[in-house]
Amino acid sequence: MSRRKTRPRTSPARPAAPAVTPESPCPCGLDASYGVCCGRFHTGTGGSAPTAELLMRSRYSAFVVRDEAYLLRSWAPETRPAEVDFDPGMRWTGLEIESATDGTAFHQHGTVTFTARYVHGGEPGALHERSRFARHEGAWVYVDGDVGE
Q1: 30, 56, 57, 79: which is deepest, by most CB within 10 A?
Q2: What is the pLDDT of residue 2?
Q3: Model pTM?
Q4: 3-state secondary structure 74-130
């Protein structure tokens, strides 16, 4: 009888972020590939989002691909956390923009109301939020939001 070494116990594998490539449809829901839509903001090759709504869409996509650096970079310094705590059991499945107020090149503040759909632990759900955005050093940043039912 041979002696086998026991394998060390490991915690269950964390679900990987969905495989989103530059050619994939953009997770934000606009009719464009990720690379020419939100991906350009994530990499910095497209500058910063020109409107609060596009920033909201790019931040949603950053949650989908788990791009912590972009989320922190696009967060207002006065409300920015030290890190983003991604829930490994959360899979974002869709974004619906319900309304956007101000938030264009002619404004300093804006709001975007949205519903982000997800699956968590096999159960579907939705996050409703009215997010506030402001200009910081010329770029739109997320300030905070009111989460609704």
Answers
A1: 56
A2: 36
A3: 0.87
A4: CECCCCCCCCCCCCCCEEEEEEEEEEEEECCCCCCEEEEEEEEEEEECCEEEEEEEE
Question: Are residues 26 and 38 in contact, defined by beta-carbon separation less than 8 angstroms?
Answer: yes
Cβ-based neighbours of 96, under 8 Å, separated by 6 or more:
29, 114, 115, 116, 117
| Dist. CA 57–CA 64, nearest whole Å | 11
Tokens representing residue 119 in the block: 């699956």
Task: Read off the tokens for 11.
Answer: 């915690």
* Burial classification of residue 80, based on how many CB atoms lie within 10 Å of its CB (0-12 exposed, 13-18 middle, 19 or more buried): middle
Q: Which residue's structure tokens are 């996509």?
A: 61
Residue closest to 30 by CA, chosen among 21, 39, 18: 39
pLDDT tens profile 52-80? 999 999 999 999 999 999 999 999 999 99
Give the Cα separation of 138 and 140 in Å (integer).
7
